[in-house]
Amino acid sequence: MSGLFSSTVTPTQRRQAFRDGLASDKIQRLPGAFSPLVARAIQDAGFEGVYVSGAVVAADLALPDIGLTTLTEVAGRSQQIARVTDLPVLVDADTGFGEPMSAARTVAALEDAGLAGCHLEDQVNPKRCGHLDGKEVVPTDLMLRRIGAAVKERRDDTFVICARTDAAGVEGIDSAIERAKAYADAGADLIFTEALHTPEEFAKFRAAVDVPLLANMTEFGKSELLSAQQLEDLGYNAVIYPVTTLRIAMGQVEAALGDIAETGTQTDWLDRMQHRSRLYELLRYSEYNDFDQQVFTYSVDSYQPTFTQP
């Protein structure tokens, strides 16, 4: 990561790295980033990719995950996150923010933002959190039009279009499998199997579907929490931890604020904070200082501007 203000790894290179990872024998682990700084920490910790959750973008705006965020908000936040990391970034694009033509525009916007890929889901619009009851899915042919429009608009063939199916919790796992096969035939590069419950269900899905599969290991949901190794052994190609970092951070924030409100001081929390020196490492503070010293070397007295006659 030699660039100070943006990664020097091109979006196409990151997209190809994601595709290569999906085709490898190693599961691709993508923790969710609720900020660019978290994305920097994810890379520093040695993960294969970064995930941007629609639920987290909404929560960061103090909104529930019910389809209230806009394409502009999601694309803008995703671009900020993709800018600071060399890793491929996969983003949650909900239902495509509308119907098929909107899904096409969504893919164009997310390509422009430097993302490695996005996933589109087969819920009705507006959607609900995938691990809540009361979801509805659109007819298969409508989802096929969403995927088809997205694939048609894609300009960079390495951009990964993932199709998420929520049908297992609505129509049953057999229906979800049939939908996944149809979505792959329509051009989806990756299938997101939402809200499966047990290892047996994950294995059944894997046995029936030939394309790469992504598992969602979100906390407090319907899926049993499986390790990356367990999912790799089941044949899954990628796993996301969408809300984990936000939940950890907000749990600590609320506990600390409660303690400070009661005691009037944060001193008991010093050993649980990220130290300023570590923050400066993640921010690459010394590199910015070095750069500034190299370019900001003139003084007012010595600086003699030249003018060109018109």
From TrEMBL:
Keywords, ordered alphabetically: Lyase, Magnesium, Metal-binding
Superkingdom of the source species: Bacteria
Entry protein name: Methylisocitrate lyase
Chain's gene name: prpB2
Organism in which the protein naturally occurs: Corynebacterium testudinoris
UniProt entry tagged with the keyword Lyase: yes
Species classification: Bacteria, Bacillati, Actinomycetota, Actinomycetes, Mycobacteriales
Alphabetized GO MF terms: metal ion binding; methylisocitrate lyase activity
UniProt-listed CDD domains: ICL_PEPM (cd00377)
Pathway it works in: Organic acid metabolism; propanoate degradation
Recorded family membership: Belongs to the isocitrate lyase/PEP mutase superfamily. Methylisocitrate lyase family.
Keyword Metal-binding on entry: yes
Cofactor: Mg(2+)
Function statement: Catalyzes the thermodynamically favored C-C bond cleavage of (2R,3S)-2-methylisocitrate to yield pyruvate and succinate.
TM region(s), chain numbering: none
